[in-house]
Specification:
The chain contains nine helices and no strands. It has 247 residues and is mostly helical. The chain has a domain of 128 residues. Helix 6 runs antiparallel to helix 7 and helix 6 runs parallel beside helix 8.
């Protein structure tokens, strides 16, 4: 949850081009520096009743929810992978996805620098896995998944521009899909693409029905949410589906 508090800083400052270290945490309304007591995850928000101690400005509950979400995701990763290299890799992966999801929701933007950070972390951990477990498939398999995911979305991006003379998705989604591949298997990459496309289509239809007109919306959050689901349950869902269609 402490890391979730830091992720809030990244989500707020990075799209604005601000430094994430300086100045220190402060109220976005009165700019008063926050003390350690103001920065205790969740507890401070509840104790202050969601308001700044110094000016009384209302604080968005989203800050607390992101802290809670981060804690829950990190705990879930630990329960699945235990004390291991994989746990460190996937909690970092989860943190990157939280930041990307919230920025995409706010700005319809997937910052390249954050995606490249995720790519770098993924490569380092896959190389470590290959060296420690003496199995190059940890690296080779993830690189194949990344290339296939990136390539599939690259084809969709330029295919839409060629056929419809407009972008069907942002190129940030193409980069994101490549990054996701480093953390998922080939099977889970296509599961993510398939499931995220269905969810986004349903959301798009509902949005169009409600507003009586189509409008763009970010695709990244759907990819990220399904990628997390795939990490925990993807293989089981694929096994169930293959068994279902062969019944």
């Amino acid at each position: 949850m402490i890391i979730g508090s830091f992720l809030n800083v990244c989500i707020y400052r990075l799209p604005k081009g601000e430094n994430i270290a300086f100045p220190g945490s402060h109220c976005t309304s009165c700019s008063h520096s926050l003390s350690a007591l103001d920065l205790i995850p969740i507890i401070s928000f509840l104790a202050l009743k969601g308001k700044c101690r110094y000016c009384g400005h209302k604080i968005s509950s989203r800050y607390m929810l992101i802290e809670l979400l981060t804690g829950l995701l990190f705990g879930a990763v630990y329960l699945k992978f235990g004390i291991s290299l994989e746990t460190v890799m996937y909690v970092t992966f989860s943190a990157v996805l939280i930041v990307l999801t919230m920025i995409d929701l706010d700005y319809m933007l997937l910052p390249t620098k954050i995606i490249l950070f995720g790519v770098g972390v993924g490569l380092v951990f896959r190389i470590l896995q290959a060296a420690i477990y003496r199995d190059m498939m940890f690296l080779g398999g993830s690189l194949l998944a990344a290339v296939l995911g990136y390539g599939f979305f690259w084809g969709m991006f330029y295919g839409a521009k060629l056929l419809f003379k407009k972008e069907g998705l942002g190129f940030g989604d193409v980069r994101l899909m490549g990054m996701l591949g480093l953390y998922l298997s080939v099977n889970l990459v296509f599961f993510t693409i398939f499931a995220a496309s269905i969810l986004a289509s349903i959301y798009g239809i509902m949005l169009c029905y409600r507003k009586k007109a189509s409008e763009p919306f970010p695709f990244g959050p759907f990819l990220n949410i399904v990628a997390i689901i795939a990490l925990f349950y993807g293989d089981e869902v694929i096994t169930w589906y293959l068994g279902f269609i062969s019944f």
